[in-house]
Amino acid sequence: MPERPFAIRPARDEDRGPLAGLFAAVAEERDGIAAEPPVDVERRAAAFHVDATIVATVGDDVVGGIWIDGPFFGFGELGMLVARDWRGRGVGSALLAAAIEWGRERGLHKLSLGVFPHNDAAIALYRKHGFEVEGRRRKHIRRANGELWDLIDMGLLLTGD
């Protein structure tokens, strides 16, 4: 198996700025995450909990990140970003596998996430890693243009309970 062209590692404090910049870039696309521009990059950088964040790097560049909010009553809520040029190249899969391992190591019983119904690639990735659709929040996210978008809830039990 060829070596990956990227590395997966726990986030560090110096990753805050690059993660926030990546967050702003993905928000500019207006279709993969709930956030839309303008993104206050400084505020976003300060908000990252690096102790619950994993990054994908190529050299010194952060090309992806996944974070686990919580735990809330034993579960963690995932958020993930991958730079456009690195999608479809295994970054998301590697980040998701690392987050699942992170959750298991910390005794979480479940990971959950929300995804837009039109994001077929993300839904396929989550299913590949065992996540199941648990519901749909109708007209849940208000977009800047006033549209209301649905959100699909997905979850993965980490224990047999």
Notes on the protein architecture:
- With 161 residues, the protein is α+β, with helices and mostly antiparallel strands.
- It has one domain: Gcn5-related N-acetyltransferase (GNAT) (Aminopeptidase).
- The chain is built from 4 helices and 7 strands, in the order E-H-H-E-E-E-H-E-H-E-E.
- Helix 1 packs across helix 2.
- It is globular, with a radius of gyration of 15 Å.
The CATH topology annotation reads as: Aminopeptidase
Radius of gyration: 15 Å
Strand arrangement, major sheet: 1-2-3-4-5-7-6
The fraction of residues assigned to DSSP E strands is 35-45%
Largest sheet: 7 strands, mixed
Query: Termini separation (Å)?
Result: 35 Å
CATH superfamily: Gcn5-related N-acetyltransferase (GNAT)
How many alpha or pi helices?
4
> What is the count of distinct domains?
1
Q: Which CATH class is shown? A: Alpha Beta
> How many strands appear in the DSSP assignment?
7
Structural class, by secondary structure, is: alpha+beta
Low-pLDDT stretches are: none
Q: What integer is the average pLDDT?
A: 95
Query: Oligomeric status of the shown chains?
Result: single chain
Which architecture would the CATH scheme give at its second level? 3-Layer(aba) Sandwich
Helix fraction by DSSP (H/I, runs of at least 4)? 25-40%
Order of helices and strands: EHHEEEHEHEE
Overall geometry comes to globular
Task: Walk me through the topology.
Blueprint: E1 7-10, H1 16-29, H2 41-47, E2 53-58, E3 61-72, E4 75-82, H3 91-105, E5 110-115, H4 120-128, E6 132-142, E7 148-157
Helix pairs in contact: 1-2
